[in-house]
Amino acid sequence: VMKIIVVKNEVEGGQEGFKIFENAKKNGAHVFGLATGSTPITTYNDIIASDLDFSDSISINLDEYIGLSADNDQSYNYFMHEHLFNKKPFKKSYLPNGLAKDIEAEAKRYDKVIEDNPIDLQILGLGRNGHIGFNEPGTPRNIGTHRVSLTQSTIDANARFFANEDDVPKEALSMGLASIMKSKHILLEAYGAEKADAVKGMIEGPDTPDLPASILQQHANVTVILDEAAASKLT
Ligand code: F6R
If you take atom 9 of ligand 1, which residue's CA is the nearest one? Predict the structure, then answer.
């Protein structure tokens, strides 16, 4: 069941997203699934500005690049500290370890983390191609944490953040769709016209691995926050 909230812009969207975190906390949520990227930043800013206290809560992030250390300013670990954890510490924050020697073992370890800490509220952004986490179109739906080869277009898009194209990570570790679907409540935010096709497919299109986010049609409790541009293709 998808509840859809359309707002004017991502500042208002951030406020709506914040209210969902606030309510979840009030109702005893303890484990929060978190995302990086530009989308959740307004919600994180409202969390930082609030008196919500996460010092007893657990966070579990969706994904991390392989090969970047936590103190590399392009790592998702670094991003989360910059945009949330430095100002709103959690009791314990989990991210995949992009420097793990044995990536398969690291994926298993991460699945165990998720199994031991069932996610009460998972926040998601949406890729232009309908990806969630690093689950790109065609990703099997029944898998947990796994190694992902980034598409050339993602590598190209990331190249601007790095001194050399060779420094751009080519792989990532991502939570799987099966794990995301186990979250009790999912909050997906999407802003901007470039997300409008993915939004339409996610909500109105067929439920298909070609558009990973369409799997959310099967989830019992999803809240979608859109700005008018992202909602513009909905009928
Ligand atoms: C981030 C993630 C990605 C992003 C998506 C949207 O941890 O897993 O799925 O949510 O690529 O990115 P932005 O928000 O930058 O448009």
Answer: 133
pLDDT tens, per residue, the chain with 235 residues: 999 999 999 999 999 999 999 999 999 999 999 999 999 999 999 999 999 999 999 999 999 999 999 999 999 999 999 999 999 999 999 999 999 999 999 999 999 999 999 999 999 999 999 999 999 999 999 999 999 998 887 788 788 889 888 889 999 999 999 999 999 999 999 999 999 999 999 999 999 999 999 999 999 999 999 999 999 999 9
Q: Is residue 17 part of a domain?
A: yes
ipTM: 0.99
Please give the residue range of the domain that contains residue 198.
2-210
Decide if 223 is inside a domain.
no
Residue 9 CB less than 6 A away from ligand 1: no
Q: Does pTM top 0.95 for this prediction? A: yes
Does residue 221 form part of some domain?
no
Quote the number of domains for the chain: 1
Ligand 1 pocket residue status of 131, Cβ below 6 Å: yes
Q: Is the CB of 33 under 6 A from ligand 1?
A: no
Residue 103, domain CATH:
3.40.50.1360
Distance in angstroms (rounded) separating the CA atoms of residues 233 and 65? 32
